[in-house]
């Protein structure tokens, strides 16, 4: 089983749709102890320009650079991801050949049809069967939900700040309270974006705008 945050899933889906009708690719960085967890993803350029519609290639220097960065963070490369334009999220013969080289990796494949994501699956090498088998992928939405909740609360708090001026307080106290509340609101927004990432912020913004228009 492999764990991954919703925000990272969203990034991969967006990249796959942007690259369509060609394959996108990237590197999965995380931990591989008692539980395999993706902590970061690194989108990289597909170096295969001849058959970019059904092949991907990662530059070895880029791979080594990301490996060094991961090591500094006490993480490691635990897999790769790429898209399949107008094909299922199942490993091709080429994918299986690659997996025979890096047998310890997870391989996430994103199926994109007509520019829209269809499905996302993870695969890992089965040493007994000597082939790729589907790996259970567990999407961790906890950080995403916490982040979106904090951002939502900060928005509500922000729009309530003007109510301070209706309280039976001196103008100086009102102004000071409003200023503190203003910075507190933006602080909550920042923490929320840290947890939910930009995707969470954009998702909530779309929900709010849809409610008004």
UniProtKB/TrEMBL annotation:
PROSITE patterns linked to this entry: MPN
Transmembrane segment boundaries: 144-167, 179-197
Domain of life: Bacteria
Keyword Metal-binding applies: yes
The MPN domain, residue ranges: 2-129
CDD domains reported for this sequence: MPN_like
Gene Ontology BP term (one): proteolysis
Protein name: MPN domain-containing protein
Organism: Candidatus Scalindua rubra
């Amino acid at each position: 089983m492999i764990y991954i945050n919703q925000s990272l899933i969203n990034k991969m889906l967006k990249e796959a749709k942007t690259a369509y009708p060609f394959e996108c690719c990237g590197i999965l960085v995380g931990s591989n102890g008692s539980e395999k967890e993706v902590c970061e993803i690194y989108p990289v350029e597909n170096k295969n320009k001849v058959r970019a519609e059904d092949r991907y290639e990662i530059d070895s220097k880029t791979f080594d650079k990301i490996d060094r960065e991961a090591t500094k963070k006490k993480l490691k490369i635990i897999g790769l991801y790429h898209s399949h334009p107008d094909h299922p999220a199942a490993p091709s013969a080429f994918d299986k050949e690659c997996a025979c080289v890096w047998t310890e990796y997870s391989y996430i494949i994103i199926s994109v049809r007509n520019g829209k994501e269809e499905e996302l699956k993870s695969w890992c090498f089965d040493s007994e069967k000597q082939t790729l088998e589907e790996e259970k992928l567990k999407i961790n939405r906890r950080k995403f939900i916490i982040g979106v909740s904090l951002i939502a609360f900060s928005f509500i708090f922000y729009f309530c700040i003007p109510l301070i001026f209706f309280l039976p307080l001196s103008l100086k106290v009102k102004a000071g309270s409003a200023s503190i509340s203003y910075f507190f609101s933006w602080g909550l927004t920042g923490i929320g974006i840290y947890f939910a990432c930009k995707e969470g912020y954009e998702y909530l913004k779309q929900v709010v705008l849809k409610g008004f228009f």
